[in-house]
Amino acid sequence: MIPYGKQTIDESDVQAVIAALRSDWLTTGPMVESFEQAFADFVGTKHAVAVSNGTAALHAAMYAAEIGPGDEVIVPTMTFAASANCVVFQGGTPVFADVDPESLLVDPADVEAKITSRTKAIIAVDYAGHSCDYDVLNEIARRRGIALVDDACHALGGSYKGKNVGSLADLNTFSLHPVKNITTGEGGVITTNDENFARRMRLFRNHGITSNHRERDAIGSWMYEMVDLGYNYRLTDFQCALGLSQLKKLPAWILRRQSIARAYNEVFKGSKVVRPLRVRTDVAHAYHLYVVQIDESYAGKNRENVYKALRSKGIGVNVHYIPVHLHPYYRQHLNTTEGMCPVAEAAYERILSLPIYPILTDAEQCQVVNTLYEIMNT
Ligand SMILES: *Cc1c(COP(=O)(O)O)cnc(C)c1O
Q1: Closest residue by CA, ligand 1 atom 3
Q2: How far is the CA of 304 from the centre of ligand 1 (A)?
Q3: Tens digits of per-residue pLDDT, 15-43?
Q4: Which part of the chain is CATH 3.40.640.10?
Q5: At the topology level of CATH, where does 250-376 sit?
Q6: Residue 52's pLDDT is what?
Q7: pLDDT tops 90 at residue 273
Q8: Residue among 4, 77, 78, 83 whose CB has most ligand 1 atoms within 8 A, to mutate
Q9: Which atom of ligand 1 is nearest to the CA of 176?
Q10: pLDDT, tens digit, for every residue of 357-366?
Q11: CATH 3.90.1150.10: which residues of the chain?
Q12: Which DSSP letter does residue 324 get?
């Protein structure tokens, strides 16, 4: 099976992890700081805070922004559930915004329409690796006096108007899961220029305790204070060693992802049946996903048929995503229903994610395209 996404691990990654395993620190050691510094330098922010996964990164961002009971946070519905769940973790209420039909990025007009006196933050999602329009979103957030968070889990290595993803919002969150643009197995990072946000998130990932084990060791003190309720969301040293090694290769991997996307675009150019998403010209797309819309009215075959036929022929396509407001949990807890985000609901019936990852070969990509056309024509 050719999967829709896959990690790239080479011998230098293996050696980096082995070296970390042979060191004195398995967790919260020097590799965490080195990785955080390299990550902050890469995206161009003052701070990067490493945590145990992308969901923890979103949770920490909600904590930093002081989201609590009674607060609303606007979240696009076309995303992974964790983008909204993080609001609920903090006792807040996600309010689902609809998306643009051609890019599936959050629609700024719908964001604006859903802001109330209770709205405390906006979470934008760089769906598929395509940056949202941050000039517009930052203007809305500034004017309303609320925080802007970029769930950039798809977009590490991309940019908007020459500025790196990770530096575009007040808080920017990343996942280091194996299907994402770099991996540490499980892992997450939040980037920010705000000193106070960074301090709060470092506390939050370590039980709400003011110093870590290594810092206490260095000054020969057992004294610590728990000043707020936090979690154990730490990332280990050997995972950070892997992250450091992966980060070095990211620029080349993004170029490869872009070249695979260009080849797909070329094949589907002018097709009325298989329509790639629209991409603005002011971005460098990080192509975590390559999403097409299968237009049933022309093909006579719906996405469901095409999905099943491709899987049966060894092409591991996927669907990103079921709109979050349609999940049973949100229907039950927030009374969300069909019709609340009609554009995302209609797109959900058409979308299909085709294989894209740096080690996908040209021959494998040909096989994907040929199999797709075979299915469409029979
Ligand atoms: C992967 C992902 C997450 C969650 O990251 P994990 O590391 O799996 O917890 C959150 N938001 C989006 C948009 C993602 O793609």
Answers
A1: 54
A2: 24
A3: 999 999 999 999 999 999 999 999 999 99
A4: 2-247
A5: Aspartate Aminotransferase, domain 1 (3.90.1150)
A6: 98
A7: no
A8: 83
A9: 7
A10: 999 999 999 9
A11: 250-376
A12: G
Q: What percent of the chain has pLDDT over 90?
A: 92
Which residue in 86, 55, 39, 53 sits closest to 188, CA to CA?
Answer: 53
From the list 16, 42, 45, 41, the residue with the least C-alpha distance to 201 is 45
146-165 pLDDT tens trace: 999 999 999 999 999 999 99
Query: Measured in angstroms, how far is the CA atom of residue 187 from the centroid of ligand 1?
Result: 10
Of the listed ranges 57-61, 179-183, 234-238, 296-300, the least confidently predicted one is 296-300
Report residue 312 as tokens. 């049966």
DSSP 179-222: TSSS--SS-EEEEES-HHHHHHHHHHTBTTBSS-HHHHHHHT--
Residues 217, 204 contacting (CB under 8 angstroms) = no
Q: Decide if 180 is catalytic.
A: yes
Fold that domain 2-247 belongs to in CATH: Aspartate Aminotransferase; domain 2 (3.40.640)
**Is residue 316 pLDDT above 90, yes or no?**
yes
Ligand 1 atom 7: the closest Cα is on which residue?
54
Query: Side-chain half-sphere of 194: how many Cα atoms within 13 Å?
Result: 16
> What does the DSSP 8-state code read for residue 325?
G
The overall average pLDDT reported for the chain is: 96
Note whether 130 and 279 are within 8 A (CB): yes
30 C-alpha to ligand 1 centroid (Å): 26
Locate the ligand 1 atom nearest the alpha carbon of residue 288 and give its number. Answer: 15
Which H/E stretch holds residue 164?
A: strand 163-164
Name the closest-CA residue to atom 5, ligand 1. Answer: 54
Residue 233 φ/ψ, nearest 5 degrees: -115, 30
On the question of pLDDT at 299 being above 70, the answer is no
Atom of ligand 1 nearest to the CA of 175: 7
Tokens of 154: 């798809």
**Pocket-forming residues, ligand 1, beta carbon under 6 Å:** 53-55, 79-80, 82-83, 125, 151, 153-154, 175, 177, 188
Q: How far is the centre of ligand 1, averaged over its atoms, from the C-alpha of 298 (Å)?
A: 34
